[in-house]
Amino acid sequence: MMKARAQLRYYKGSPQKVRLVADLVRGAGVTSALTCLKLTHKRCARDLEKLVRSAVANLEQKAPGIDTGRLVVRTITVDPGPSQKRFRAASMGRVFPRLHRTCHVTVEVGEREK
Predict the structure, then answer these.
(1) How many CB atoms lie within 10 A of CB 93?
(2) Residue 73's closest CA among 114, 111, 20?
């Protein structure tokens, strides 16, 4: 059983928001996952689509001539990355802290089990 993976590290977006899109394609076929990501109106959907395409290309490099119609998104995980700490000016000389969150996304594609 052949499988390949691709990683997107330090993606500028909160893990909670990226997981909403990742849950849509987990376990789906690659063609339906790409279609779903193309039609999703979220900012991270475009980057996740590129990541799935990269995982498919990695698998084609490992096993040339593999049937891409039988591929499925086996796992997709979204882990938190380091947060950038920033401050926003407030009234009366105060500041409010803000966290700019990042995440690491890992996609693994493989052949559908018979």
Answers:
(1) 6
(2) 111
Name 95's bridge partners. 89
CATH of range 3-111; options 3.40.50.10310, 3.30.390.50, 3.90.470.10, 3.90.226.10: 3.90.470.10
pLDDT at 82: 97
The Cα 91–Cα 88 span in angstroms is 10
Instruction: Determine what percent of the chain is predicted with pLDDT higher than 70.
Output: 99
How do residues 69-79 score in pLDDT, each as one tens digit?
A: 899 999 999 99
First to last CA, the chain: 11
Query: How far apart, in whole angstroms, are the C-alpha atoms of residue 33 and residue 75?
Result: 12
The whole-model pTM stands at 0.89
